[in-house]
Amino acid sequence: MHMTKFKIMKHKILGFLLVSAMLVGCQQGLEKKLSECESESHRIEANKKLVSDMYQELFGDKNTEAIKKYIAEDYIQHNPMAADGRQALIDLATKWFQGAPKEKIDIQHIAADKDLVFIHLKSRMGTKTVSVIDIFRIKDGKIAEHWDVMQEVPEKSANSHPMF
Fold first, then answer.
1. DSSP code of residue 58
2. Residues 56-102: pLDDT tens digits?
3. Whole-model pTM?
4. How many other C-beta atoms can be found within 10 angstroms of the C-beta atom of residue 90?
5. Closest of 145, 159, 147 to residue 71, by C-alpha
6. Which residues neighbour 87 within 8 Å (Cβ) at sequence distance 6 or greater?
7. How far is Cα 163 from Cα 156, in angstroms, rounded to an integer?
8. Nearest to 44 by CA among 121, 138, 162, 158
């Protein structure tokens, strides 16, 4: 009888140790996952800051030097009115900004998913108000790729929902 109690106690201790080892492994796995999530969250916030800072410095302050700071040399441009490459953007922005006043960029929304940042802006093109949505892909801390759409804000809308 004494031996049976010993075996039961031995199995309980071994079971406890096994469960403890599993829990420690799970906790370490959870800590690693949490750390990865925190790292991803910081990267996403840094990407959003990179895009909003670039937008203000380049399009708001009309500072073409910002292109070298924020845009990858092999920048891919999906707007059919602009060529690929950092230098092409410098050339185009230099023409756009001639005589243009500085302005505060009016960011309505900004969001990110992994390496993509989505920004929705209220902007002006001459006397017209436009809604602009830009999508940027970030690679190695620089803007590597760009898509955009623009829509003029109509004087009358078919619904009561604002564009901003």
1. I
2. 999 999 999 999 999 999 999 999 999 999 999 999 999 999 999 99
3. 0.78
4. 15
5. 145
6. none
7. 12
8. 138
d(CA 57, CA 74): 20
Among 58, 140, 55, 44, smallest CA distance to 97 is for 58
pLDDT attached to residue 12: 74
Where are the chain's structural domains?
Answer: 2-152
Measured between alpha carbons, how far is 132 from 33 in angstroms, rounded to an integer? 36
Return d(Cα 93, Cα 73) in angstroms, integer: 15
Residue 17 has pLDDT above 60, yes or no: no
Q: Which CATH architecture has domain 2-152?
A: Roll (3.10)
Nearest to 120 by CA among 149, 78, 143: 149
Which residue, among 77, 104, 108, has the nearest Cα to 93 in the 3D structure?
Answer: 77
Cβ-based neighbour number of residue 13 at 10 Å? 10
In total, the chain counts a number of residues equal to 164
Pair 76, 135: CB distance under 8 Å: no
The DSSP output letter for 104 is -
